[in-house]
Design a protein that fits this description.
Oligomer: single chain
Radius of gyration: 15 Å
Mean pLDDT: 95
Number of strands: 10
Strand content: over 45%
Distance between the termini: 29 Å
Low-confidence stretches: none
Helix content: under 10%
């Protein structure tokens, strides 16, 4: 994303809290789109944890069906948090004070390399490239704030 001006986020909780439209593209190793997810995501503060919940519809090949996910963002500074899976395991850290963050997460024999890019007050992007013996794909997700 060279040449894209990023939007600094001094307060991660204030920025993320609310309702977002979610659009995800799943690309194979060659860059071809193999699936999409359309849905919504919410960030809600619960007991000092910013809880992320997404729900959408996955279309992949001939399959179409519901998908959900929950992550827990544990704030540890004005623009920072540690992100955990809903079962409690650590996923990655994030610091959006400069409008971007890159991270790596080992998952058994596979590796997730990803990042956040904050594009505006109401739009951000997340990307994960997943490689290893079990997986070889890229997940591109765009978030746009929903009014209200």
């Amino acid at each position: 994303m060279a040449g894209v001006e990023l939007f600094p986020v001094p307060d991660l909780v204030a920025y993320l809290t609310g309702n977002w439209r979610l659009e995800r593209e799943i690309l194979d190793a060659s860059g071809a789109t193999t699936g999409t997810v359309a849905g919504s995501a919410t960030f809600v503060m619960e007991d000092s944890v910013l809880v992320y919940r997404e729900a959408g519809t996955l279309e992949m090949g001939g399959y179409q069906g519901p998908v959900t996910r929950e992550l827990h963002y544990r704030p540890d500074g004005p623009g920072r948090a540690s992100v955990h899976f809903d079962h409690g395991g650590f996923f990655h850290d994030v610091d959006l004070r400069e409008g971007r963050w890159d991270s790596t997460h080992p998952c058994r024999d596979d590796v997730y390399r990803g990042g956040y890019r904050v594009l505006a007050a109401d739009r951000w992007r997340q990307e994960w490239a997943v490689t290893g013996p079990a997986k070889d794909h890229v997940l591109l997700t765009w978030f746009s704030r929903r009014p209200g």
